[in-house]
Design a protein that fits this description.
single chain, 149 residues, mainly alpha
Length: 149
């Protein structure tokens, strides 16, 4: 029998750590100690996502930067974060790849990145990790709702 995901500390779950590490790769404002994202990145994201998905992004960002740090041992904000991320990264838009190419520093070797490649890797990694968490949380919730015979 597997352990209920909700009985463990989210901070100790490897998929949680991976997902939060992936979000840390988002381009931050220079010299920013907070989660403030680079304005050009956010502007380009807004253009590509459109108004409806940008609301989802803003909710995701608030959950990641405010809710999770204030409740690091709670699964509730993490569930919201996963839902928001899945809605964004599973949205079929090839225009997102170049925007997400900025999630990691440009290579010091050649000063440029392969267009679309980094963005796709990051999106796929976020989607896979978020999906693993989503499935685990849904299964745990269903198990907790079952009534023993």
């Amino acid at each position: 029998m597997t352990a209920n995901i909700f009985t463990t500390d989210p901070a100790e779950h490897p998929d949680v750590a991976r997902l939060l590490d992936l979000l840390e790769l988002l381009p931050h404002s220079r010299g920013s100690a907070s989660h403030a994202l680079d304005e050009d990145f956010v502007r380009e994201l807004r253009r590509v996502l459109g108004a409806e998905l940008m609301v989802v992004w803003d909710n995701m960002f608030q959950t990641w930067s405010e809710d999770i740090p204030h409740a690091p041992h709670s699964w509730i904000p993490l569930q919201r974060l996963v839902d928001y991320l899945l809605e964004i990264v599973t949205h079929p838009s090839p225009e997102l790849h170049p925007v997400f190419d900025r999630v990691r520093p440009i290579s010091a070797d050649d000063g440029r990145s392969a267009a679309g490649v980094i963005g796709r890797f990051w999106e796929n990694d976020v989607a896979t990790t978020a999906w693993h968490l989503y499935v685990s949380m849904e299964a745990a919730e269903r198990r907790s709702l079952r009534i023993a015979p």
